[in-house]
Design goal:
Layout: E1 12-14, E2 20-24, E3 29-30, E4 32-36, E5 39-42, H1 91-109, H2 119-142, H3 146-166, H4 173-177, H5 183-205, H6 212-233, H7 242-267, H8 286-294, H9 298-307
Antiparallel strand pairs: 1-2, 2-3, 4-5
Helix pairs in contact: 1-2, 1-3, 1-7, 2-3, 5-6, 6-7
């Protein structure tokens, strides 16, 4: 049978009812538990949360781990720490979706096999270049890659909007703009492409510290948007300026193959490939500086100079 008190410690005092009062000298609180089936006993708290039974006791006031500064730590976007996940690398998927859709459209822009209308691209732009690339961009966001999320999601949106514009009988965008002649649509589409040229140039700046292959992808894509935009804005009686459209198609083909190349570099590893795809890091990039630090021939060159 349990007694009135189950645990006795040196810091005890006898109450007026004959109970053993467990007294906390540090914060002046009592640890008697009166709600245990008519018996009193010492309340056993967790060592880190021992507040002596007083919910207002400042038991962890000076413990920095118990406090969360306003807008500090993980709440601050610039200091966000990406959680460890089991997500695969979504970049090769997004690059592949971009590459195939760009490849087909660029061939049509170059006049391959006398195909004059890009209707077949609508299906690719909706399904692969649009939806799949947008999903890859969202997965890039999940793994914490801001650049990848911005680029893939944006170009996924580009292909979806491109498909919406060219969908026959869909939103009637082309027919509404061409109601009084071809000029409104050609000018509108030219401005649309120039906007993507500006956006791609912004991303191009952010590739200057990555790899040569990645930089060339955005460089050729930027030139493709520029030439296509000029071709639509500088139209003539027969339609968009054919020379600029074909030149834009050439740079689009280059961008498509570079996107496939970067995708292969992301897919191939020691589990599925016998070789590593070279991507040529810029000498001022982080990887380039690391390689220069490993192979520092400055001392050897100085010795050679003294000998000479």
């Amino acid at each position: 049978m349990a007694t009135a008190t189950e645990h006795v410690t040196p810091n005890t005092a006898t109450s007026t009812t004959g109970e053993q009062a467990y007294y906390n000298k540090e914060n002046g609180t009592s640890a008697i538990d009166h709600g245990h089936h008519g018996h009193t006993r010492e309340r056993k708290a967790h060592p880190e949360n021992d507040y002596g039974g007083n919910p207002l006791a400042h038991f962890m006031t000076n413990n920095p781990d118990a406090r969360l500064a306003a807008f500090g730590g993980d709440f601050q976007p610039g200091l966000y720490r990406t959680p460890k996940t089991q997500f695969a690398n979504p970049a090769p998927l997004g690059l592949s979706a971009f590459a195939l859709t760009t490849f087909v459209l660029s061939l049509i822009n170059m006049g391959t096999l006398n195909i004059g209308e890009p209707n077949i691209v609508v299906a690719l732009a909706f399904g692969y270049g649009g939806l799949v690339q947008l999903l890859a961009g969202m997965w890039e966001m999940a793994v914490g890659n801001t650049f990848g999320a911005t680029a893939l999601s944006s170009y996924g949106g580009f292909w979806l909007s491109f498909a919406i514009i060219l969908t026959p009988g869909g939103f009637n965008i082309v027919s509404a703009l061409e109601a009084h002649g071809p000029a409104p649509f050609l000018n509108s589409f030219g401005l649309y492409l120039m906007g993507w040229f500006i956006f791609t140039f912004i991303l191009l700046i952010c590739t200057l510290r990555s790899t040569v292959a990645f930089f060339l992808l955005f460089f050729t894509l930027d030139l493709a948007f520029l030439l296509l935009g000029i071709g639509y804005l500088q139209f003539d009686a027969s339609g968009p300026q054919s020379g600029c459209i074909k030149a834009g198609g050439v740079f689009g083909i280059l961008a498509a193959f570079l996107a496939w190349y970067n995708a292969l570099a992301g897919i191939a590893d020691n589990s599925n490939s016998f070789f590593v795809i070279p991507v040529a890091h810029f000498p001022w990039s982080v990887k380039g500086r690391e390689r220069r630090a490993k192979i520092d021939n400055s001392a050897a060159r100085e010795d050679a100079g003294h000998v000479a």
